[in-house]
Amino acid sequence: MKLLRNVFLVLLLLILSAAGCVFYAFKIEPYRLKTNEYTINKTQSDSTPVKIIQISDLHIKEDFTCKRLEKVVNKVNSQNPDIILFTGDLYDNYAAYSDDENITAALQELKAAHGKIAVWGNRDYGGGASRQYESVMREAGFTLLKNENLSVTLNDQKKILFTGLDDSLLGRPLMPYTAGSDDSDYSILLTHEPDIIDEYMDNNYDLVLSGHSHGGQINIPFLPAVNEKAVETTALSTKYSGGMYHLKEDPDTTLYVNTGIGTTHISARFGVVPEVAVFYVCL
């Protein structure tokens, strides 16, 4: 009888633990938001580093509306960034849910001393989003790059070259003409899908920023196969699925894959907390 009771208690504990994990994955972690900070080229200069913030993959939808976006805006603005970057996927499915007016107003509240820059993601094309994404981002104060360069001059007259590629799944990415980039003190490539970087190794960018992967959204400790399967559901993000990579093919280039803020496929995250990435770049 005692053994039977112990077995029952163990089973009950397992059921409650599983239920708790499911509740956390759907109702808590997707609405958390953490800041990950990185210092780049810390030995290169004694000057004050430029603070660049990257956000990615908002995936606005019925369970992640402009009200949820306020938390992101407040988190970013509290950092007093020099430059804000958005690496694509504003809506999850524009045909199913859109709120252009309120989303534009929320994104307008993002403040950066030297501007805001965005590129296209695959979700910015689907469901009719391509007709509205550009106008939303431009009205929100972002410079939207599609196979284009943008040089930003800082207060100390140093220059950062930003190159933004079109989306690799539904767009037509093409490296723009880069003459004049030699006078830049630093260069950053923006591309939504990370695995595409292998095609641009010869372009000698200092830093590549991407998103798209969501880190798989599910990363259960001691069960790596679950995360591997989750990552495989997103094309062009299986080789580089999240975090910082120092590329063997080009040791001078660093790739960072932002695991994003929103969710897709299922509205759950477990072990992959939504992130705002902060880069202190020493020039």
From TrEMBL:
It comes from the Bacteria. SUPFAM superfamilies: Metallo-dependent phosphatases. GO terms for molecular function: UDP-2,3-diacylglucosamine hydrolase activity. InterPro entries: Calcineurin-like_PHP (IPR004843), Metallo-depent_PP-like (IPR029052), Metallophosphoesterase_sf (IPR051158). Coiled coil: none annotated. GO terms for cellular component: membrane. Pfam families: Metallophos. GO terms for biological process: lipid A biosynthetic process. Residues 51-215 form the Calcineurin-like phosphoesterase domain. PROSITE patterns: PROKAR_LIPOPROTEIN. This is Ser/Thr phosphatase family protein. The lineage of its organism: Bacteria, Bacillati, Bacillota, Clostridia, Lachnospirales.
